[in-house]
Backbone:
């Protein structure tokens, strides 16, 4: 029993004595980080300022390009009319519901396909066709079948994200080392034990990855859905603004949309950190 | 002595669209209680298939396997299986990995869990029980894998090239380590390997399989003159070379 060495953690050596070179290195690394942040902010401020100034000086036509101050005014106006959070809320709700349903259903379907290889083989050509089809083409079909409302929008979102999730998760399942499954079988494990003890925990990173892809796809689905049918939501504001040539409204909605989508993506990243923090 | 494993006329054919492959043909041998038997043979001779048949994971096309007088029809709690890699689950702690077999067999009683802890303590892994596999060295991981097998208290251990993923030095150490544990726990063991030295150093008997279709070509008794039988000491014994030469000739390797 002589090989009891533990892998030493790489940072332990540095804790004892911090050499001058290392201090210098750390200082530079910190400076670099600050510079990057500074330039990032600078780009934002300069871009907004240029936009504002050019629009004010009529170098560009603010009627077509809008401008930051008009966007702020639009947000204030929407807020005072009491519809700002209603539009944001309905769009976010549709996106979240579509996203959660897409991930859950996708994972469940992937499990079914893994469970029965026969079923998987039968459905393969259909999956290929559905995956290749631009799902947006199905929009009118959903409206006729489900009616113009949030339900149709959620189905649109599902249509866009579902097949991708199924394929992603199924590939994750199939990439798992066959010997891990054999290990469970040598203990007399059943198929459902293989699923719960190996497949699902081992595919956890794959499923999180699918979540990240789905966040983006859900927003595509929601906005396309709202373009087609809705009476409320950010997608509706964009289409309506475009139709009545209120570019302020369009720009405002796009910016809010960008912020909301980023927040939701960061939410998934945070979830990933919380769930896998003790696994490394 | 009792025969804990008896293999009668076992043959195995694999079916594929391109035809039929006879992997094993008329295999006959038995293993005594407490014996350590190695199986060597050229690659693709069906060594691993034979272990899968003994464990009941795969059923043979012809013949039968008997464990302690009972015919094998499916996986049995008498068998403990060790695979090529340790396959510790990186999302489970060492302790959780060790009790995996108990969970699957629905045998995770307080006594069984206590036994798991005692085994971890005996083999110097208790301090690591709450660590994750990636914090352990290759040799320790393989020891955890053995304990995971031992916790379910099998009578017979099937070792399917369990050292092949380790580098040479670690491998020699782990050979000694695993051998000592198997002997201490009084287990019967069947080791599949393609390393002739390894097969002799650990075994009481070496069974040589021919190339496909695999049949028992010869069985070599390993009687060595050394004070204490350990795999490392065995390699020093004067008879080691002769047995090696005999098996080497029997393997009939052509490049």
Residues:
């Amino acid at each position: 029993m002589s090989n009891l060495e533990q892998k030493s953690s790489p940072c332990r050596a540095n804790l004892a004595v911090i050499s001058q070179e290392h201090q210098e290195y750390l200082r530079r690394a910190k400076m670099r980080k600050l510079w990057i942040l500074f330039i990032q902010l600078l780009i934002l401020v300069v871009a907004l300022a240029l936009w504002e100034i050019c629009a004010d000086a009529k170098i560009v036509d603010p009627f077509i390009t809008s401008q930051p101050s008009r966007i702020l005014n639009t947000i204030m106006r929407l807020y005072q009319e009491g519809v700002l959070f209603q539009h944001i809320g309905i769009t976010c709700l549709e996106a979240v519901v579509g996203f959660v349903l897409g991930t859950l259903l996708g994972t469940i379907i992937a499990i079914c396909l893994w469970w029965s290889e026969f079923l998987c083989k039968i459905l393969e050509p259909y999956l290929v066709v559905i995956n290749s089809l631009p799902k947006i083409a199905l929009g009118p079909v959903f409206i006729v079948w489900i009616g113009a409302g949030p339900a149709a929008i959620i189905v649109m979102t599902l249509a866009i994200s579902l097949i991708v999730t199924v394929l992603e998760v199924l590939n994750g399942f199939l990439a798992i080392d066959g010997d891990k499954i054999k290990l469970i079988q040598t203990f007399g494990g059943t198929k459902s034990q293989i699923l719960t003890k190996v497949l699902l925990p081992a595919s956890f990173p794959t499923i999180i990855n699918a979540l990240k892809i789905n966040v983006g796809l859900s927003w595509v689905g929601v906005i396309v859905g709202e373009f087609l049918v809705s009476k409320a939501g950010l997608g509706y504001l964009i289409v309506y603004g475009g139709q009545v040539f209120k570019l302020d409204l369009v720009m405002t909605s796009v910016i809010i949309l960008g912020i909301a989508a980023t927040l939701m993506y960061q939410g998934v990243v945070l979830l990933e950190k919380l769930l896998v923090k003790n696994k490394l | 002595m009792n025969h804990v494993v008896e293999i009668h006329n076992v043959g195995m054919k694999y079916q594929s669209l391109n035809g039929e492959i006879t992997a094993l043909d008329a295999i006959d041998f038995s293993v005594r209680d407490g014996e350590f038997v190695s199986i060597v043979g050229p690659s693709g001779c069906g060594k691993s298939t034979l272990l899968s048949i003994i464990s009941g994971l795969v059923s043979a096309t012809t013949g039968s396997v008997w464990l302690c007088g009972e015919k094998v029809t499916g996986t049995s709690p008498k068998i403990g299986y060790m695979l090529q890699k340790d396959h510790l689950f990186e999302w489970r702690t060492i302790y959780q990995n060790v009790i995996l077999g108990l969970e699957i067999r629905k045998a995770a009683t307080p006594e069984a869990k206590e036994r798991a802890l005692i085994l971890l303590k005996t083999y110097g892994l208790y301090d690591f029980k709450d660590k994750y596999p990636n914090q352990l060295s290759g040799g320790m991981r393989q020891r955890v894998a053995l304990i995971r097998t031992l916790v379910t208290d099998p009578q017979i251990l099937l070792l399917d090239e369990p050292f092949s993923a380790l580098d040479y030095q670690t491998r020699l150490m782990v050979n000694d380590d695993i051998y000592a544990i198997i002997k201490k726990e009084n287990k019967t063991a069947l080791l599949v390997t393609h390393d002739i030295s390894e097969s002799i150093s650990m075994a009481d008997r070496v069974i040589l399989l021919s190339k496909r279709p695999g049949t028992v070509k010869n069985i070599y008794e390993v009687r060595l003159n050394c004070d204490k039988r350990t795999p490392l000491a065995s390699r020093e014994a004067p008879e080691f070379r002769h047995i090696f030469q005999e098996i080497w000739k029997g393997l009939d390797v052509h490049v």
Summary: Chain A has 13 helices and no strands.
